[in-house]
Write a structure and sequence with these properties.
This protein is mainly α and about 190 residues long. Helix content is about 75%, strand content about 0%.
Length: about 190
């Protein structure tokens, strides 16, 4: 893989922050989608804390994903190495194939560029996504009821791509594998 301890450490930091974001958004969605009646004061406090953390991670994600894009600019020549790395990840063949097939039919037809295209979505939408979480939290604060409609979190495909790209760049197969799983379930 691509050498450079500083880059590997930064890639590990970015991909772990994105993994944390994915986990927290999943907890947020799970709670709000299951809530059918008034939310207790204790749960409102917990949701508020969760929303603050998600919002911070989303705002950080924009800069961190921009760094991933810059770090992988011109990495198309490493596409075969990335594919080899992906094929060695500890996830099912179906998950790997789903992402690799999407990459091969994408505009670029190349895995690194496909991941970069998906990551750029988060760079461009993190502010809007942060505002959507803030809006949902405002509704919970005001009514103690789950929002009538929650954000669909379409950016989760980009989060998965960032986890995968960061894991690949930093040589972390576990995070890259989880990123592929998120991508397989979230990307069109």
């Amino acid at each position: 893989m691509i050498a450079g301890i500083e880059r590997n450490v930064k890639a590990a930091h970015v991909s772990s922050n994105l993994a944390r974001l994915a986990s927290l958004v999943d907890a947020w969605d799970d709670y709000l989608n299951k809530a059918t009646s008034e939310i207790s004061k204790d749960d409102v406090v917990s949701l508020r804390s969760l929303a603050i953390e998600i919002r911070k991670l989303l705002l950080d994600a924009s800069d961190e994903c921009q760094w991933l894009l810059e770090a992988t600019n011109g990495q198309g020549s490493f596409g075969d190495q990335y594919l080899e790395f992906i094929n060695g990840l500890p996830v099912s063949v179906e998950v790997k194939s789903a992402v690799i097939d999407k990459a091969s039919t994408s505009r670029s037809g190349e895995i690194v560029q496909y991941l970069r295209e998906k990551v750029s979505i988060l760079v461009n939408t993190a502010d809007d996504e942060e505002a959507a979480i803030a809006s949902e939290m405002r509704q919970v604060n005001e009514t103690h009821l789950p929002p009538a409609q929650t954000n669909d979190h379409g950016y989760m495909c980009a989060v998965g791509a960032g986890m995968t790209l960061g894991g690949l760049l930093g040589g972390n197969p576990g995070v890259a594998g989880v990123g592929l799983i998120v991508m397989a379930s979230c990307c069109d």
